[in-house]
Structures are given as structure tokens and as C-alpha cells.
Amino acid sequence: MVKLRLKRCGRKQRAVYRIVAIDVRSRREGRDLRKVGFYDPIKNQTYLNVPAILYFLEKGAQPTETVYDILKRAEVF
Questions:
Q1: What is the pTM for the complete model shown?
Q2: How many domains does the chain have?
Q3: Which is deepest, 43, 48, 51, 56, by most CB within 10 Å?
Q4: In which element (H, E) is residue 35 found?
Q5: Would you identify the family this protein belongs to, as annotated (predicted)?
């Protein structure tokens, strides 16, 4: 099963996150299927590749709670 979830990047005390499509069995920093977005909680910036996100959602990917909230704020749902 595929999930849309956050992958931590950046440096210590200055985290930024990539929104990735990744297999459920992979760890947080594991190999992703595709990068579909970017989220910076400090600057409150998001970049979303909406066609890629919709493609994975159509194929049955489940977003995590945090990613769901980000997508809802961006009016993808």
C-alpha cells in the first residue's frame, strides 16, 4: 500500500519536509516512489504538485493526518 507522508529534510532545529508517495513498509527516511510536494512549517510555505497528488489518490494512496490537513488547507480536497 502507498501512503502520502512527510519526509524530514533540512538541518537541526530547522526542519523542512518533502511530501512523498512512499510504500507503507518503508521507514520515514526511506526510498520514496515520487516527491509530490514541499512543506516548510517555519515559513508556512507549501508547494504541491497537484496532478501527481491526484494521480496517487486515484490509485488508492492514503494521506497521513498531517498531509491530509496540508492538502485540505490548499483546497486539494
A1: 0.85
A2: 1
A3: 56
A4: strand 34-40
A5: Belongs to the bacterial ribosomal protein bS16 family.
Contacts of 57 (CB under 8 A, 6+ apart): 4, 63
Q: What length is written for the chain?
A: 77
Q: Report the 10 Å Cβ neighbour count for 21.
A: 22
Residue-number span of the structural domain to which 42 is assigned = 2-74
Q: Is 49 exposed, middle or buried (CB count within 10 Å of its CB: 0-12, 13-18, 19+)?
A: middle
pLDDT in tens, 33-58: 889 999 999 998 999 999 999 999 99
Query: In this predicted model, what pLDDT tens digit does every residue of 8-32 receive, in sequence order?
Result: 988 999 999 999 999 888 777 778 8
CATH number at residue 21: 3.30.1320.10
